[in-house]
C-alpha cells in the first residue's frame, strides 16, 4: 500500500480540519495507508479521525518550529504522498520535498489567497511568497471553488497549471450523527421565525454588522437568531446584543460538535461573511433542507448559486439587503429533517471519487 502522511497544524474544530479528516478517512484502504501528523494531540476534532488511523504528534507549539520533527517522521515512514491544508502547513509540507524529492506533495488551499494577503499583515505578506515560490513546487494544488482558482490566476498572478478544483463537501453520516429523527422545538416555535448562524466569532464572519442591521428588523411575528460558535469577538457581540436590547432575540450558543442537532429546525441560515473559500456551513445547511441567505462576498457561494436558486439560496451584495429577505421568511414548524436541496456533486461520495483519482494521477 502507498503510505500517505496527512498534515494538520491542530485538531481544533474548523472547516479546513474537517475537510482534511473526512478526505483522509474516506481514502481507498485497498491502495493507501493514511497516517495523521499534528503539532499536538489536543482538540475536539480528534473524535472525527477514524480509529484505524494512527496519529503522530510533533510536540511543537508553532508550525515553523516543527520542520526537523516532521523531517524525522518522513524519514521513518518514507511516504509516497503527503497531503496538507492551510497555507502555513502547506509551506512546511512542500519544503520537505527538498530532502525527499520522490515524495509527491498535494496541498489544499482553505481560504481566498488575495484576502489572506490583504487582511493579515505580516502573515499575509509571507503567504504571498509561499503562493508564488512554493506552490508551483507542489505536485498538485487543490482549490475548493472556481472563485479561488480565479483568485490565484488573476489577482496573485500564479501559474495554475498544477492546480485542480475539488469541491468542498458534506458527509451525510457525519452530519446526521446525533441528530434526532424526531425534532424537539422550543416554545412558541410555530409563531417564531427561527434563524441560525454558524461560524467562528471573528471579524471576517460579519456577525457584528449583521447584528447592527437587526435593529431595523421588524417582522410581523416573533423572531430568534441562534449563533453557534466561539471566538475572540464573543464579549463584543454579547455587549452589542445587550446594548440593542436584543438579548431575547439573539442567543450566543457557544461551540458545538454538531450544531445541526438544533439548527436543523431553523427556517433559514444567515451567512454574512466578509470573505470565505467555499463555506461548508452553507453546504451543510442545504443538505439539512435549511435555506441560506448569504453575502455574495462569501467566496465559493457564487459557485453554489449557479445551481441553487431562491428560495433555497439568496445572495445579497450589501449587509442591508438581509433585512427585507429575512422579513419575507415565514415560520415553519419542523418535526423531522427536511429534504436535501444540495446538489449531489457536493456529497462526500462524489468528491472522494475525484479525490482518489487525483491522488492516483499524482
Describe the structure.
There is one protein chain. The chain is built from 14 helices and 13 strands. α12 (301-305) links the parallel β12 (292-295) and β13. It is an alpha/beta fold. The chain has a seven-stranded parallel β-sheet, sandwiched between helices. The protein has a six-stranded parallel β-sheet with strand order 10-9-8-11-12-13, with helices on both faces. It is globular and about 65 Å long. α3 runs parallel beside α5 (121-134) and α8 runs parallel beside α9 (234-243). The model has no long low-confidence stretch (mean pLDDT 94). It is 35% helix and 18% strand. It starts with a strand and ends with a helix.
Short description:
The chain is α/β, with parallel strands linked by helices.
Q: How is the main sheet built? A: 7 strands, parallel
Q: Structural class, from helix and strand content?
A: alpha/beta
Global geometry: globular
Beta-strand level of the residues, as a percent range? 15-25%
Overall number of strands = 13
| Order of strands in the sheet with most strands | 3-2-1-4-5-6-7
| Fraction of residues in H or I helices | 25-40%
For the record, give the distance between the C-alpha atoms at the N and C termini, rounded to a whole number: 15 Å
Radius of gyration over all CA atoms, rounded = 21 Å
Low-confidence stretches: none
Mean pLDDT comes to 94
Q: Given the structure, what is the number of helices? A: 14
What string, H for helix and E for strand, traces the elements in order?
Answer: EHEEHEHEHHEHEHEHEHEHEHEHEHH
Amino acid at each position: 500500500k502507498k503510505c500517505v502522511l496527512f498534515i494538520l497544524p491542530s485538531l481544533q474544530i474548523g472547516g479546513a480540519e474537517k475537510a482534511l479528516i473526512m478526505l483522509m478517512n474516506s481514502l481507498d484502504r485497498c491502495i493507501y495507508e493514511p497516517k495523521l501528523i499534528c503539532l499536538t494531540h489536543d482538540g475536539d476534532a480528534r473524535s472525527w479521525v477514524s480509529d484505524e488511523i494512527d496519529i503522530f504528534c510533533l510536540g511543537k507549539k508553532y508550525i515553523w518550529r516543527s520542520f526537523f520533527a516532521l523531517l524525522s517522521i518522513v524519514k521513518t515512514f518514507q511516504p509516497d504522498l503527503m497531503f496538507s491544508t492551510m497555507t502555513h502547513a502547506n509551506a512546511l509540507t512542500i519544503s520537505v520535498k527538498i530532502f525527499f524529492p520522490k515524495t509527491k506533495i498535494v496541498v489544499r488551499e482553505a481560504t481566498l489567497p488575495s484576502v489572506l494577503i490583504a487582511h493579515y499583515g505580516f502573515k499575509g505578506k509571507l503567504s504571498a511568497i509561499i503562493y508564488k515560490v512554493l506552490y508551483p513546487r507542489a505536485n498538485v494544488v487543490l482549490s475548493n471553488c472556481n472563485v479561488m482558482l480565479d483568485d490565484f490566476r488573476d489577482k496573485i498572478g500564479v501559474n495554475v497549471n498544477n492546480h485542480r478544483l475539488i469541491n468542498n463537501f458534506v458527509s451525510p453520516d457525519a452530519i446526521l450523527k446525533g441528530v434526532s429523527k424526531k425534532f424537539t422545538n422550543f416554545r412558541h416555535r410555530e409563531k417564531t421565525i427561527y434563524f441560525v448562524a454558524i461560524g467562528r466569532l471573528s471579524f471576517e464572519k460579519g456577525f457584528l454588522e449583521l447584528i447592527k442591521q437587526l435593529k431595523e428588523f421588524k417582522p410581523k411575528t416573533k423572531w430568534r437568531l441562534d449563533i453557534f460558535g466561539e471566538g475572540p469577538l464573543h464579549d463584543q457581540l454579547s455587549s452589542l446584543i445587550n446594548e440593542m436590547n436584543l438579548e431575547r432575540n439573539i442567543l450566543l450558543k457557544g461551540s458545538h460538535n454538531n450544531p445541526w442537532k438544533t439548527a436543523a429546525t431553523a427556517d433559514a441560515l444567515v451567512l454574512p461573511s466578509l470573505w470565505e473559500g467555499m463555506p461548508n456551513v452553507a453546504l451543510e445547511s442545504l443538505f439539512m433542507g435549511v435555506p441560506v441567505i448569504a453575502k455574495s462576498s462569501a467566496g465559493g457561494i457564487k459557485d453554489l448559486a449557479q445551481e441553487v436558486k431562491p428560495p433555497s439560496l439568496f445572495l445579497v451584495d450589501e449587509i442591508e439587503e438581509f433585512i427585507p429577505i429575512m422579513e419575507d421568511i415565514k415560520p415553519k414548524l419542523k418535526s423531522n429533517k427536511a429534504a436535501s436541496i444540495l446538489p449531489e456533486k457536493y456529497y462526500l461520495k462524489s468528491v472522494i471519487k475525484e479525490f482518489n483519482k487525483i491522488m492516483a494521477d499524482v
